[in-house]
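User: I'm designing a mutation panel for Short-chain dehydrogenase/reductase SDR and want to avoid disrupting the core. Could you give me a predicted structure to guide residue selection? Please restate the sequence first so the numbering is unambiguous.

Assistant: Good idea. Sequence first, for numbering, then the predicted structure tokens:
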Amino acid sequence: MLLENKTAVIYGGGGAIGGAMARGFAAEGARVFLAGRTPATLDAVADDIRAAGGLAETARVDALDGDAVNGWVDSVVETAGSVDISVNVISHETLFGPLLDLPVDAFARSLEKIARTLMLTTQAAARHMVKQGSGVILHFGGSDSGNRMPGLGNVQVGCEMVEAMRRQWACELGPHSVRVLSMKTGGVAESMPDGPEMAPVKQQMVDATLLKRATTLADVSRIAAFLVSDHAATMTSTQVNISAGALVD
């Protein structure tokens, strides 16, 4: 099993993306600790994992609260002995529209939230990983140098911030054998609400790919499990493109 004897913490573990990663990690042998602000969704993912024979625990944690994040990660290490994988996929505040029309304060707050949560959660894990001399930090981002789509508001800017932080963390943590990676998908249709109004949007996502298929939650699950495993030991400071060709490097 790829992740046997590994401990993973996942912020946003009750969401579609976080839940998919949690199930994938657990299926490969990891003990997963899920954090979020909605116990019901966290428990649903944990119940699925336990029903399949995996190990999962949940905690209500605000990923923007430094004391809460650090206290929780410390408790995970005290319980499990290590933190080997840290994933942050909490929801971001999306503001679509031309930058010319966006409220400056709302735009700044949305980016501050991304910066704050990534700094807090990465610092909390990195403190332990540096002592261990191992670990993997994985985020969702998506640098798209060829972007020509207007009206994305804070979305692409926020993704670029994730990638900039990934690069800086990777060069600082690399000497301690801690890897830092990100994934970009171009969107996961399965994670979006159902309904007739969403069908054209999802079809556009498929049409934009070279493979004429959208990235699925199963794709996210399997590839994330590989990336945080020792099979990807030489991979760090890079974004992994699983967009099915929607985003061309």
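For picking mutation sites, this is relevant: The mean pLDDT is 93. The two ends are 31 Å apart (CA to CA).
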